[in-house]
């Protein structure tokens, strides 16, 4: 059987693109791991904050909002965001607060919202209530169901080992099987450049960057369920309620030699805890879990969405860089529009800024 679309990658990028492309033809999605959303998509802080990111990302965020509010009855729940600054961070705090349109509050008001905070440690605080948790599993399963509802197939434990051009498209070998497809969609996350090279397509220059996360007990036995996500000025750390506890990250971006199943480094975890610790009254004495993920960026830190200009039938859905979930609905719709030859909803300038043609 020749598929219309063969998608490599079972994270949020590949699944959302597959759901929209399934309306245009038969889809086969291949994921190397035993489960969907195993790597970056399964290790995301998953916050919807529309004004977070570069202008192109913000455009995708805004265009995705209605989908987030309506898919399966809505996948958003209230969270809020609080930006905090300590000594010598006033300038970067003012920049961040202005760029994201946050409301300035006093240190005492910040501590009233998050009782674990130490007002004496805070030199700047700002909030935005219009920030939301994303139910990532619900979104993943929604897109997987959509692919199957159109007769498509989602296959896990199917690592791609060979790709070849054919007279009518592509031949892809994975898990001992050979598949034919008219159009190949590269949504392989940190492995996207490697997949491109395997297909004989010029790589973009994507860089996987490790980010580490620790989970700690709720400070002081507080109910943290309604606390906002805390973000350090300059994005030097963040902390977010998670399943009755707190996840803390140094928000590092350490390049890795090659994409892999990432793991955290103890020194980086300690740095994140120390940055968080400066602002709170309770000492962190133990971790309950830790992990790391790879956030993959293009050279200009802008998503790469659309057909490759030099290789007919090869489509990029890559470079999400940590914005994958909040941009997914609009990014997937854009890819489907471009493949179908329809006029995108996004303005032409944004579409051009996201196109892989900018690297050729």
Description of the molecule:
With 360 residues, the chain is an alpha+beta fold. The protein has 2 domains: 2-61 and 135-206 and 299-359, FAD/NAD(P)-binding domain (3-Layer(bba) Sandwich), CATH 3.50.50; 81-128 and 208-295, D-Amino Acid Oxidase, Chain A, domain 2, CATH 3.30.9.10. 28% of the residues lie in helices and 28% in strands. It has 9 helices and 20 strands. The chain has helices at residues 12-21, 55-70, 90-100, 107-113, 136-149, 192-198, 266-277, 324-340, 348-354, and strands spanning 2-8, 27-30, 47-48, 76-78, 81-85, 103-105, 124-128, 132-134, 153-155, 160-166, 169-174, 177-186, 207-216, 229-232, 238-242, 245-249, 254-255, 289-297, 304-307, 314-318. Strands 5, 6, 7, 13, 14, 15, 16, 17 and 18 form a 9-stranded mixed beta sheet that branches. Strands 1, 2, 9, 10, 11, 12, 19 and 20 form an 8-stranded mixed beta sheet that branches. It has a 3-stranded antiparallel beta sheet with strand order 3-8-4, with helices on one face. Strand 15 and strand 16 (245-249) form a beta hairpin. Helix 1 (12-21) packs parallel to helix 8 (324-340) and helix 2 (55-70) crosses helix 8. It is elongated and about 70 Å long. The two termini are 33 Å apart.
List keywords for this structure.
9-stranded mixed sheet; FAD/NAD(P)-binding domain; 20 strands; 360 residues; elongated; D-Amino Acid Oxidase, Chain A, domain 2; 9 helices; 2 domains; alpha+beta; 28% strand
């Amino acid at each position: 059987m020749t598929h219309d679309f063969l998608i490599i990658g079972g994270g949020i990028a590949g699944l959302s693109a597959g759901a929209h492309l399934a309306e245009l033809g038969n889809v086969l999605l291949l994921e190397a791991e035993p489960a969907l959303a195993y790597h970056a998509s399964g290790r995301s802080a998953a916050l919807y904050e529309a004004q977070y990111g570069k202008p192109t990302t913000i455009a995708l965020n805004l265009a995705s909002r209605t989908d987030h509010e309506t898919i399966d009855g809505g996948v958003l729940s209230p969270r809020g965001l609080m930006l905090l600054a300590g000594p010598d961070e006033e300038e970067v705090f003012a920049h961040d607060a202005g760029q994201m349109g946050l409301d300035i509050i006093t240190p005492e008001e910040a501590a009233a919202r998050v009782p674990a905070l130490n007002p004496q440690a805070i030199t700047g605080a700002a909030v935005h209530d219009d920030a939301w948790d994303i139910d990532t599993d619900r979104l993943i399963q929604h897109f997987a169901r959509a692919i199957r509802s159109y007769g498509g197939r989602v296959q896990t434990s199917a690592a791609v080992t060979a790709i070849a051009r054919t007279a009518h498209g592509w031949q892809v070998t994975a898990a001992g099987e050979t598949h034919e497809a008219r159009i190949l969609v590269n949504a392989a996350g940190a492995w996207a450049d490697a997949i491109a090279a395997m297909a004989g397509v010029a790589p973009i220059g994507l860089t996987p960057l490790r980010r580490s996360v620790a989970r700690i007990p709720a400070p002081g036995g507080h109910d943290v369920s309604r606390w906002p996500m805390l973000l350090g000025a300059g994005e030097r750390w963040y902390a977010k309620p998670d399943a009755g506890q707190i996840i803390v990250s140094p928000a590092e971006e350490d390049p890795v030699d090659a994409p892999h199943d990432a793991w955290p480094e103890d020194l980086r975890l300690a740095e994140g805890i120390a940055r968080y610790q400066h602002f709170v009254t309770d000492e962190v004495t133990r971790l309950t879990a830790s992990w790391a993920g790879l956030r993959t960026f293009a050279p200009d830190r802008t998503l790469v969405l659309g057909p490759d200009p030099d290789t007919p039938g090869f489509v990029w859905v890559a470079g999400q860089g940590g914005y994958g979930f909040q941009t997914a609905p609009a990014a997937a719709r854009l890819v489907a529009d471009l493949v179908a030859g329809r006029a995108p909803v996004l303005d032409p300038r944004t579409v051009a800024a996201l196109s892989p043609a900018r690297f050729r």
